[in-house]
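Hi R.,

Here's the input for the zinc ion complex you asked about:
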Amino acid sequence: MTERIGRSAIGRVLIAAVFALAAVFFLSVQTGQAASATKIVLDDREVTGARDVLTVKGTTMVPIRVISEEMGYPVKWNSGSGEVTIGGESDGVVLKLGSRSAVSGKGSTTLEQAPFSRSNTTYVPLRFVGTQLGLAVKWDGSAKTVYLQTQPLEGPQTGPNDDSDLPPNPAPGTTAASTVDQISFSENRLMIAVSGDATPKAAKYDSPYRIVVDLPNTSFGPLFAEGQGLLAGQQGSISVAGSSDVTGIRFALNDDSSARDGSQLRTRVVIDLNKNKSYEMYREGNLIFVDLNRSGGPSTPGVGSDGKKIVVIDPGHGGKATGAVYKGGPTLMEKNVNLDMALKVEALLKQVDGLDVVMTRSDDTDVSLQGRVDIAENLNADIMVSIHANSMPVGSKPTSGTETLYTKPESKKLAETIHKHLIEATGLPDRRAKYQNLHVDRESNLPTALVETGFLYAGGDVEKLTDPAWQDRVAQAIAAGIVEYLGL
Ligand SMILES: [Zn+2]
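And here is the predicted structure with zinc ion in place:
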């Protein structure tokens, strides 16, 4: 027994050394890319940690430590609940890992992208956070730079009379069915986040060239109105720099009581163009996009760009949700076993060309089951693989074995392909790839499989689950199954 522990401890040290080397390698690769990465400038000072920013569907996502350590704003991270509080205790806004809702004392608003965790780092949407902190946010596409200023930036002047196609302001007290919670423009794409059902209509006009997007039966959400400093006139603008097509974005709330569809209020967003430009409008969940790239222009870089497949790896449980707990020796919690395995799978997949890997958590954080689904769906991921270790009901006989679970018929092939590799690697009894009613697969719109590598159970497979060499073999098998399924 002592000898076994000694051997596995040496193995652990070796693995740790390999991963330390891998970390150095990844760091140097990232530094090498810094020249082409997005920059963040706060009041003329470059925020150095910004080399870690990620662009997800045109939304700039920054690590929370950039906001706290480099920008100097208060940030509180609660790994137990997966919540980030940005700003002061009383006036701060709370974001949650995997959730597109942000909550403050003034209400809730919908984010363009949910905060997510990748490589032990929690990312939040920069424009939203900057706006919440009272900063003016400006994106310069040609310089790939986000400018943040503590003084308001000068934007195009917008008055009530400068555009004949804007109807008059509504009477006070009128309400709408849903709200516009965020408007942003980056990478030549307008994004409008809405809550509830909002059916947009877009049209193009000339002299001057502009695209007008109308959202019947909507008003501005309280956080958005507050963040934009909207006056009684309920209108505002976003300045746009570095776009060869767009000179500015304007928005306003209008009286719509003459509409026949029962709409009382309507929000209108106008993209001012300097030339005739085609566009495509589409909707993803609560997000409405008006994309000027989709008419043959340059594509938007980010997660899944260049046709890369997006794989979401989901380590089961986390934080207060420990999963199965083994007490036959030193206490072993399933959440940690799952995370160790998932990080190994992530490291292997990062070396595969044509693939981007995103984790639902990469530290000891609880993410709700729906939050995990939301992360995958927001990214338009190709597949999601949840990683678990198994347990038996109390009082059952010790059991051993490996199984891979799925719910939707579309997920069966993914589960079977992973299981084929997995069962060879675990060397445990084959409990097969099979149906089980799982939230993560039932509620997601993408193929999702859940692996139960072995039983975290006295007399079960605990020795294997804690053996680093076995963990490496199993991680390789899961990665191999994913790569085979995606045809890479
Ligand atoms: Zn589990």
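One thing worth noting: DSSP finds ten helices and 31 strands in the chain.

Cheers,
M.
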